[in-house]
UniProtKB/TrEMBL annotation:
It comes from the Bacteria. It comes from Streptomyces galbus. One of its GO terms (molecular function) is kinase activity. This is Adenylate kinase. InterPro entries: Cytidylate_Kinase-2, P-loop_NTPase.
Length: 172
C-alpha cells in the first residue's frame, strides 16, 4: 500500500481514515477538497489537474476522495489500493449532519477559507443534502470502477461498518 484512495459517500469518514492511515503507514495525506477549493466563495482551483497530477506522481500518498471528475481517472490509474468505506445511509447521515452542524455553529474555517453557514443548509450543494441525494449514484460509481478492467490490478479493501474500519486499521 503505497498509493491509496479512500473512497465512499459524503460523510462516511474518508478524511479521518485517510489521515490516520497516512500517519500509520508514513504516507503523504492529500485532502482533495483542500486541493479543489482555492479561495473564498468556494472558488475552484483552476490548476487542479496539474496540482493533482504532480502530487499523484509522488511515490507514497493517501487521498480522501473518489476524485473530482477532472482528476478521477488520473488518481485511479496511479493508485495501488482502494479502501472503500461502504457504510449504509443510517450510519452516514447522522455523521454528516453532526459535522455540518458543528462547522456551522463554530464557524470552522474550511477549504480556501470558506465556512458553512445557516443559509448554506438551504442549498442542494450543502453536504447534508448532497450526501442524501448522491448516496446511490456514488455507490454505483465506485462499484462500476471496481469492475472496470483498467482498475483490476487495484487491491480493494471494502469496509461495511465503522467497527470493520477500526479493526482493519488496528491490524496494520
Amino acid at each position: 500500500m503505497q498509493r491509496v484512495l479512500v473512497v465512499g459517500v459524503t460523510g462516511a469518514g474518508k478524511s479521518t481514515l485517510a489521515r490516520v492511515l497516512g500517519e500509520r503507514l508514513g504516507l503523504v495525506y492529500l485532502e482533495m477538497d483542500a486541493l479543489y477549493f482555492a479561495g473564498p466563495g468556494w472558488a475552484v482551483n483552476e490548476r487542479l489537474v496539474e496540482d493533482v497530477a504532480g502530487l499523484a506522481d509522488g511515490p507514497r500518498w493517501v487521498v480522501d476522495s473518489l476524485g473530482y471528475p477532472q482528476v478521477r481517472d488520473l488518481l485511479w490509474e496511479r493508485a495501488d489500493t482502494v479502501v472503500w468505506l461502504d457504510y449504509p445511509r443510517r450510519v452516514v447521515m447522522p455523521r454528516v449532519l453532526r459535522r455540518s452542524l458543528r462547522r456551522t455553529v463554530t464557524r470552522e474555517e474550511l477549504f480556501g477559507g470558506n465556512r458553512e453557514t445557516w443559509r448554506d443548509w438551504l442549498s442542494r450543494e450543502h453536504p447534508a443534502w448532497w450526501a442524501w441525494a448522491q448516496f446511490p449514484a456514488r455507490r454505483r460509481e465506485i462499484e462500476r470502477r471496481l469492475r472496470d478492467p483498467r482498475f483490476a490490478p487495484l487491491h480493494t479493501v471494502r469496509l461495511g461498518r465503522p467497527r470493520d474500519a477500526a479493526a482493519w486499521l488496528a491490524s496494520l
